[in-house]
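Section 4.2 – Deliverable D4.2 (structural model, holo form)

The reporting period included a commitment to supply a predicted holo structure for the target in complex with pyridoxal-5'-phosphate. Inputs used:
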Amino acid sequence: MSDELYQEHILDHFESPYHKGVLENPTCAHRDKNPICGDEVELALKVDEEGIVREAWFQGHGCAISQAAASMLVEEIEGKSIDELREFDAQQMLDLLKVQLTATRQKCGLLGFKVLKTMVYSLDGTPAVK
Amino acid sequence: MTKTVLQQPLDVEAVRRDFPILGKPLAEGRPLVYLDNGATAQKPKCVIDKVTECYENYNANVHRGVHTLGDRVTTELENARETVRNLLNAAAVEEVIFTPGTTASINLVANGWGRKFLSKGDEILVNLMEHHANLVPWQQVAAATGAKLTYLPLTPDGRLDMAKLDGVLNEKTKIVAVTGMSNVLGTINPVAELARRAHDAGAVILVDAAQSVPHHPTDVQEADIDFLAFSGHKIYGPTGVGVLYGKAALLDAMDPFLGGGNMIRYVYQDRFEPADLPAKFEAGTLPVAQAVALGTAIDYVTSLGFDAIAAHEHQLTVHAHERLSEIPGLTIFGPAPEHKGSIVSFAVDGLHSHDMGELLDRKGVEIRVGHHCTMPLHEWLQVSSTSRASFAFYNTLEEVDALADAVQYARKVFRLS
Ligand SMILES: Cc1ncc(COP(=O)(O)O)c(C=O)c1O
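Output (structure tokens):
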């Protein structure tokens, strides 16, 4: 059987993640964890007056899937508007990962996405300006 | 009378043939290497057949019907109770209560005994290696009664630090709740010594024997245990059934936990009188077929002999320590093999346990990953999760090698050199 789950691009993001670290003075930040396996992801965004994500960073620990997904997510959302992020759906997140996930592993793959969704919905309709 | 027990070494190949699932390959013909026995053990054919026999031949409710089937199933159930009594060497068969499992048994004591006998200022002595099933019920009862939890520290290698017992066990301690064997570290705890020390301090002791009962002989009289809980499914029996052992005097003094049918002597409009033991704690319909087949599982295990089982499982544990220690970046949690049962929990730098579990599964090696219902222990270990291999008497040295090879394979997939 092939290890299609652990493809190069997943391992690359896991080993050398995009924007993993602390973002100073974020416009908004949110964290969640997957209680079953202890995966944890925190997202932090800097959003400008037009409601465009200028910078997106994550911190966290956990399995390769949850961490690689968070890395892909922050890379994907930079430059997008908050409105676009409201539209961004789970399928798009899974498409970014480009691998087939079982129901259990979807919880890992979608952890960062869930954090993002909670965060943008708490931004209350108007573009978030600090 | 002295009992002469002739202990044959285990014929592992013959034993494996008793377990239908072990002969069934996984997808793509990968052989199953089942190393998740601490979560639940596989069932021998005789246990599976007993459940079927019960449903096909004498299914009825127990202690209720006055008909032939009811008589027959009641006899079978009471035989199983006697088998459990004998396994634990309990003084009396009424001291054996059937429950849904270890969790239910501990909750029964926490509620039936704890809520009646604990009050503000009392202490419940636990420790960091306890399963959530032996922590959360005590936290709940502490919140309800004003009692508080105290912790016996662990040694750096994950044993109870008995030298520190005097500092935490005193006249305020009312109960010591301790696992017979840790489900993560594998540590085997000195329960007889703890019982003696608890009794000297005027406390009682509850042993969570979920992991110890399937692998080592248990003697509640010799060790002077007050309460002991275990699950059927971890001793090669069905799910849904377990046991609470309690000394009769303690069980008599307790309040019933669940109210309902079977647990009463008499019900008036405004009150009830509880039944005698064991019915007092067996409200509602029992998992009858499961309890009957638990008796069969225990007969099976005792026929192999605990000395032979322990010797074989120890060999597996030692071999696992040897093979896994060769792997770069791998840490084993818990004491050396001489202080533990057949559980080996580990972590590999740069490889999360979730990924480990997934990649081992590709090789047919089934282990458990995560925190294994021991979050405070994992915090103490300073890891968010671990991978756990837990061996049974039907596992082989070759399967331990398969585990080590699969861990190496996982490291390779993760490009760790
Ligand atoms: C030490 C220990 N205690 C309690 C339990 C809970 O057993 P059950 O889920 O059968 O009630 C387990 C099983 O995971 C265990 O390993």
